[in-house]
Amino acid sequence: MSEAAAIKLVRRVRETGSTAPAKIGGYRKPFLDGHEALLRELTGAKPGITLAELRTALVARGIEAGSPTTVWSTLRRLRISHKKRR
Question: Is pLDDT above 90 for 48?
């Protein structure tokens, strides 16, 4: 056992009274949960809308949108395409 691991174990025992490991992983609610209808509306109204434009539209409506990656992962989860169509 390394010195750092021993120090962390002693700290955990002092704080919690247990040597059991802390919880790892778990479920986290999607950041834009509850705004699916708005995302569908925005992508349907303007084909080819960019992630930055979607984020700006969400922020303009008072919705904390996070990064463009957050918007992208929500669109992907909902299977909404935002790519330009020919």
Answer: no
